[in-house]
Fold this protein.
Amino acid sequence: MTTPKVDLKNKWLAAVLAFLIPGFGHVYQRRRFKAVIYFTCVLGMFLTGMTLGEWKVVYWRWEPGGHRTFGYLAQVLVGLPALPARFQALRYTAPPLDGFDIERRLRLDTIKGSDVDSDLDLPFTGRFRYRPDPDSFAPEAGDDFPNEPIINVTGRIRWQREDGLFTGSFEGNTEDGKPIKLAIAGQPTVSPRVFAHGEITPTMLRAEDATPVRQFSNSLRYVHCDVEDGPRIGEIEGTVERTLMDWFQSPLEDKALEEIHGRLGRRYALAEVITWIAGLLNLLAIWDAFEGPAYGYGDEEETVEEDSVDRR
Amino acid sequence: MDAHSTWYLLPLAIVISLVYSASRYELPSKILTRAGRMFLTIMIFMGIVFVVLDTLSFWL
């Protein structure tokens, strides 16, 4: 209720400020004690939930008949700290290729996603292997081509697409320090740019006896492409960096959610609930900034007692 | 994690009590008093629920 003892100033502006940053509406109204309570409690709770859920509990997905993040409707009440999710959802569904829509994106396997960047120029870490050389094949050695060794490489990978064709190169060094330069051949495979918790498990270049361990990452993108080194052909597989702006609050796909739920278990559910509560609590703060304290200033009971004493 | 997740109730109850009371009153002393009372109410209620459920699960 509105009490004359509280100067709400422009209550619409205060409500908007209280929505954008918890407590800021009250700072504007010079109600500093409450501003500290709202800012500390709401943001503290929101950040606690985000940390518990490895910063992947706030995202926006709204597919008709499919996954819908109803919880975001509560989280977004925290304001600016949760608003990037809506923006990231738009970037996530923005088509790098013509006619690319969210249904198609969700059907795609993360690793084999075909929304390849038209231009890419990033540091690369991974592995390289020549394909078997037919000229050196000795029939008496057996029916199969011998496997070439897998070489760890670091360097820079770049490509561009013109008229549907990819051209580019990888330049770097092997683990022995030898320089290596390879030309991109064919269309690379790369996991999407705006993405969170994508799988980066090596699938092509893995030692025969290596135990496959699924790896997921926010800050790395999986890359695989065929390469040429003069007359010889080979393939490279590895990762390039993904910036914070490209993964923070990006939509999580089903495979990522399965991995997180499997690993974090109830902790992820608790993290979600904590962020929901934070948003719902800020709704109280927004209403307080707009309409004032619900039960009054807080000295009403004492006033009534004083009145009754005066009457006697 | 699972064994200790119940402890998150403490900060959760404190935060909920503070924010709820802050949205009801304006005076800092009143807010803190009501928040303290609400926190105790929540803890007692949850304690009773815990004891009841723990007792019921004794025979499981």
Summary: Helices of chain B lie at 9-24, 28-56. Chain B has a mean pLDDT of 92. The CA atoms of residues 5 and 12 of chain B lie 11 Å apart. The radius of gyration of chain B is 15 Å.
